[in-house]
Design goal:
The protein is of the alpha/beta class. The chain contains 14 helices and nine strands. It has one domain: Alpha-Beta Barrel (TIM Barrel). Helix 1 packs parallel to helix 2.
Amino acid sequence: MSGEAPRPYNLIAELSYRCPLRCPYCSNPVDWSRTRDALATADWCRVLEQAAGLGVLHVGLTGGEPSVRDDLEEIVAAAARAELFTHLVTAGLPLSPERLEELARAGLRSVQLSIQDAAPEESDRIAGTASFDRKLAIARKARALALPLTVNVVLHRHNLGRVREVIGLARRLGAERLELANTQYHGWALENRAALMPSREQLREADRIVREEQTRPGPEILWVLPDYFGERPKPCMGGWARKNLVVAPDGLVLPCQAARDLPGLEFWKVLDHDLAACWRDAPGMNAYRGEAWMPDPCRSCEHRSRDFGGCRCQAFHLTGDAARTDPACVLSPDHAIVVEAREQPPDPSWRYRAATGK
């Protein structure tokens, strides 16, 4: 498929896997500490310039926590010079309001802030560290700087019952967008699935509340249902290597944040190849592009050009084979795996992600 790769529109720049939070649903690799921050400032600046040359319009600076890097202002300025819309995805610390102002001067265009719960003590418990008040300070500073603010809240068994309060908090903070993202079970979330999985009754009540709140003035509310309770899988990242490209902290170029876990796939690093080659020509990028790789029932399914067979990483972690139909699909021969998982008794405790600061 060399030379036939579609244009990517979004670059997910994972500047570091380091983060002072310990969220039990973190999507970073469970063995994230083995992946060092191998890209220097000049490397990231070169990646951003090459991304613009590929046709990328938007860059999300994320991690882990991007503000653990001392060169974040330089990276933002490089993205601005490349005329990329630069979006910061942050947990709110170690970022400070003063540093956020410096980032805005460097060319930052918008902010996404994660909050774990509307109740301060519960937010801190889920994050594994005291952070709620600092998060709110970042939200207020973003609005004072006229930066568009998105609040992201990952929902699960332990906070789903406070979804109305979460919406109220986003309104008070002046958020333009609220992402109510039910947990997707990758990384640490898969490790803690039994502790995080909501009941169908919780989801049904939350759905009722969200639909009611969506009719009221306030932020745009994005309500993302979990795969495990649907009938059709989601098109992972809009389809494998179709619109989004990920550059990991070690320079590995991936179609999604979790793809490095898939065995037998060869991805390339921006330290060895330019970004265009990593996107177009790396064998791993082409492994699941398009529809030719699909087995039945995907191959003959009318939904194949919309869901692209679902998530390759989820298929691998649940079945051991990345090429199988995503078990989240009701038509998958492995759908019973998902049914059993959502019906298992809840675990009263979870395993925290290890934290690290700068």
